[in-house]
Amino acid sequence: xxxxxxxxxxxxxxxxxxxxxxxxxxxxxxSSTVHEAIGRRGFLGPDIRPxxxxxxxxxxxxxxxxxxxxxxxxxAAIEMCQEGDVLVVTTxxxxxxxxxxxxxATSLMTRGVRGLIMGAGxxxxxxxxxxxxxxxxxxxxxxxxxxxxxxxxxxPIAINGQxxxxxxxxxxxxxxxxxxxRAEAAWALEQSEARVARExxxxxxxxxxxxxxxxxxxxxxxxxxxxxxxDTATDL
Amino acid sequence: xxxxxxxxxxxxxxxxxxxxxxxxxxxxxxSSTVHEAIGRRGFLGPDIRPxxxxxxxxxxxxxxxxxxxxxxxxxAAIEMCQEGDVLVVTTxxxxxxxxxxxxxATSLMTRGVRGLIMGAGxxxxxxxxxxxxxxxxxxxxxxxxxxxxxxxxxxPIAINGQxxxxxxxxxxxxxxxxxxxRAEAAWALEQSEARVARExxxxxxxxxxxxxxxxxxxxxxxxxxxxxxxDTATDL
Amino acid sequence: xxxxxxxxxxxxxxxxxxxxxxxxxxxxxxSSTVHEAIGRRGFLGPDIRPxxxxxxxxxxxxxxxxxxxxxxxxxAAIEMCQEGDVLVVTTxxxxxxxxxxxxxATSLMTRGVRGLIMGAGxxxxxxxxxxxxxxxxxxxxxxxxxxxxxxxxxxPIAINGQxxxxxxxxxxxxxxxxxxxRAEAAWALEQSEARVARExxxxxxxxxxxxxxxxxxxxxxxxxxxxxxxDTATDL
Amino acid sequence: xxxxxxxxxxxxxxxxxxxxxxxxxxxxxxSSTVHEAIGRRGFLGPDIRPxxxxxxxxxxxxxxxxxxxxxxxxxAAIEMCQEGDVLVVTTxxxxxxxxxxxxxATSLMTRGVRGLIMGAGxxxxxxxxxxxxxxxxxxxxxxxxxxxxxxxxxxPIAINGQxxxxxxxxxxxxxxxxxxxRAEAAWALEQSEARVARExxxxxxxxxxxxxxxxxxxxxxxxxxxxxxxDTATDL
Amino acid sequence: xxxxxxxxxxxxxxxxxxxxxxxxxxxxxxSSTVHEAIGRRGFLGPDIRPxxxxxxxxxxxxxxxxxxxxxxxxxAAIEMCQEGDVLVVTTxxxxxxxxxxxxxATSLMTRGVRGLIMGAGxxxxxxxxxxxxxxxxxxxxxxxxxxxxxxxxxxPIAINGQxxxxxxxxxxxxxxxxxxxRAEAAWALEQSEARVARExxxxxxxxxxxxxxxxxxxxxxxxxxxxxxxDTATDL
Amino acid sequence: xxxxxxxxxxxxxxxxxxxxxxxxxxxxxxSSTVHEAIGRRGFLGPDIRPxxxxxxxxxxxxxxxxxxxxxxxxxAAIEMCQEGDVLVVTTxxxxxxxxxxxxxATSLMTRGVRGLIMGAGxxxxxxxxxxxxxxxxxxxxxxxxxxxxxxxxxxPIAINGQxxxxxxxxxxxxxxxxxxxRAEAAWALEQSEARVARExxxxxxxxxxxxxxxxxxxxxxxxxxxxxxxDTATDL
Lengths: 236, 236, 236, 236, 236, 236
Hints:
The structure is a homohexamer. By secondary structure, chain A is of the alpha/beta class. Chain A has one domain (about 20-190): Glucose Oxidase, domain 1 (3-Layer(bba) Sandwich). Chain A has helices at about 20-30, 30-35, 70-80, 100-110, 125-130, 185-205, 210-215, 220-225, and strands spanning about 10, 50, 55-65, 85-90, 115-120, 135-140, 150-155, 155-160, 160-165, 170-175, 175-180, 230. In chain A, strands 2, 3, 4, 5, 6, 7, 10 and 11 form an 8-stranded mixed β-sheet that branches. In chain A, helix 4 (about 100-110) links the parallel strand 4 (about 85-90) and strand 5. Chain A starts with 9 loop residues before the first strand and ends in a 6-residue tail after the last strand. Strand 1 (about 10) of chain C pairs parallel with strand 12 of chain E, so a sheet runs across the interface.
């Protein structure tokens, strides 16, 4: 009996990508907006944080599953990247070791890649910030990688319980990173932009001093739940 | 435009399961053996720990994706469980709240379920241990759940970067939890049992005082890597 | 202007305690039961864990606020302890240093104290287990304390966001630690025992194979929330 | 027997606040100065961190105890806020879910609220920074809240072992957050400003090259503790 | 210019060991006793925990510095081990991967090694417990090692800020792990046994109901520090 | 028998330092470059982080081993510091308490000290950033120190498993902190600068669109490891 396909290491050359313009537009609405708009799904978790401030990107995922402490497969992935992609990397076991630095960023920038999402570590923070290449990562570390273990490119991977398929949309900003399934991209954009529009109206009302308690109907809800209003603590 | 399928909450009634006997046999070889035998894949991570000592199980996954702090979907999942299953639960955001206790265990035991894997929290530890129902969990907590938010049963979920599909094999013991893809089950059992057999021979040699350094060929490797043997530190 | 009372270090000799029998009876229902019965309140958090297995206690709190790494005030607190008390200790800043070991346990056992809840660290685990003195703690450490800094005994303290007043009921077992306000003790016991009784009935039904989905009315809820039942994944 | 008061969900309309000017002046001296000046008390812990750099605020606490993942009670709290307040929110169990974003900030800014202290998560970081609304929080997350569970406003809450009563003073800056009891506010300001004045003198001496070792009398202390001065390590 | 000695990978064959009997006797007094007796030094930290309960060992350190995820050097170290040794392993960067399991334990047991201290991960917990080979470790994981990177044996290493030299004494039990410098071994035993003897007397007094507050002189200390005794909280 | 030298508290007045110019030049190449250039050693770990952005320093270590929560020995260390030094502080047990603030920084700046590396906590972040004194630390906290316990200055210390000897080179920037042994300084500078030079060439090639996959020879490696290139996922 031979080993099944899952045990092979592969690089998939051609993937179906979400539309690049749609991906960029989704990213522009902000990661929290997208997450909320598609039904509170796709958040990669609070431990994947930006190394820079105020970056906001949207793009299509090229995925890498690497061995901890080994970035050989990132080198293989670069060739598969194109304008509008976001590279998403994770490892088969937890590790803080940096798998990415300014040289790889230089390479990705020549191909029009919009950013990196890293489930392990990165380094060369100062250089990355100077280059203006946006990165979200779980760790920052001086500890660098070897190039000794095979892995795969453009297979489904998962970070903190969220599955990322190659070609999915990645939206990332100061709040974190959200993945949107490729098949949902157009719908997600519609939902996200509708939410942005709705929030504009809400923001105007709130800035004018109206209370969400009133116009959302929360006051009724508090009553239904039996929350009591007391004039002072001594009324308890 | 209507919402895509991914945004629906569903309970899938019929799933294709790995063979129950194969699943049990895989579990019996031990989670680390399986993990190693299939190419170092499938480990759910070092933070999913047993609440008991010395339990070892193998079974087929029934999966639950729940809202943090809400166990409504576990109630829905029980009906889908059968003899030989292992219930695997995770939440859409990190949470320590207990979604499982001795009452749910009682229900699962009547259906022949072999154990629980929980990405959030459990409680009633003393009762669970007394019942002899094996549990692996990320948290233990008194904080109990509500039953107010929909989710899904028997869809693909992920824990710490490992995807678990309904019907996959779960192997769990004191070392942690490993998932094996359903399609790989027969091959994985073959590999795992071969590894157990090989290790028997190795164990006998080691117990007789032979050095792995010699019979594995590591001594040559050390030489190739330039590791120097010195008689004392003063030879440095 | 002189300093306010909050800045003084005090030992309060006489505190009003919840009834000792009530406290013991509350503890006997189990920490998760109590927590649930009083409205999901009072859980000291998932990082306060038992050093032993299967202990279950209930008692009245004598509280200590200590300086990190200093157990002088525990010595002062012992004199204030009586039969049926539980000593609850926390520090003014996070610390792993052990403030408690087998000698202090020996002292507490002569006074009939039922256990210790520790927000910092303990040591002498083997001896404590041999003595059979139950302990719940945030850390285990060899690092011992000095006796150089004042603090207070029998003032209100807080652990992980839960306030513990001297004389409050402490319920602790394998699930963790729950605090019940003294004024609520009788009511909490009534609620907890009612819950235990109700669960007996539920357990019998579940053991007989009935589904909570049916007798709790959750099936209706799933329908209301729009959860769809599909025969197979291909129906998606 | 009816449930006790602690089990009710309440919104307290009128609270006694520390003087707004005093609260602002306390904040201006810096959180570490205040903490030190009042006897090393009131620090909310190293895991409550600012989302911005170089903000420094002082104000009076309006408190919220919310269910994890649910921000209904923040909506209720806004109505209770006035010029000079700081909103302080925590949850009944640990959670990373965001309970606060830019819309709620807009609402609070119209009422003159000076900032937010959050024991769970926030989102819309980029917008909050653009609005200039200062926030200290335990987590940043895209994951948003529901509005389905009651809680309380303006009751005593606790974060990391520090009790915050409504009306207490909150001082927050890059070092973290400190709470000062309302009754201590005037005294705390006096102590804090005295400390600032003293430190000015010390700073001048240190900048001139004098050694704290000398003018604090630490040299004598080192001698008393038996610390030995050796010319080189070989004198050991 | 050639690379300096620190950059070479070496295996030191002959090390000076503390006396085996002294090492065993030190271990028998308990890790916390030793730590305290030698001046509160040498504790390897609260995150190095036993996989078993109630084991207590003392022995002489054979040290390994390994690459994360690679246990080649443990194989090299076994040959250097002798009766009475304890193997102490750490890695050049943080890692949860298991570097040790039951086969290596079998090998070590044939040479009379008393236990393992591991700064990364171990697996085969059930087998190790069955073998009765005591292990203290930072992580438990199914994830196994490769044998592809050189490192060193019997050079000084450090775990959590404590330096361990080859030949030093290791004392380990349920409280954790303490290292004693070889040159201090005889003195450390003397100090530790004196402490045990002293504690015997103290224990007898405490068991008889005497208060440490009195016979330690802490009461005077409380007075000196200005701690006030109040009859009730209302005296505040 | 008297206590051994290791149990004494000492301040070593004269240490051999690496050359100040070499130390500065090493720092200028960046911490990750140094770490890589000397064989992936010396990284103090991913939890020692800068409080500022874009600082980059190199200097010679003056070391402090302090009691948790006590900074008496930092006061003693200042006198031992000179132009070009970096102060490196750790504690005998884990602690978040701040041992350093703007006053100590003022003192160090008058002596030409280039920065601080702290294994516990710091405070006065806003002031430190205003002063422009660079700090890398494990924690930020308002909680301040006492000055009541002896320790040592200029003895070997360890942070996260890396030993720092007085006089060693410290290189620190946004990636973290690396220690280089004094005896290796000249060699390390040579290696680091060679690496910087090599990377310049590589960067130019990558910026021109060449693939590391080609010019590093990784393509051959992927083939050797059996990584398969597939046109689409359906070829699996």
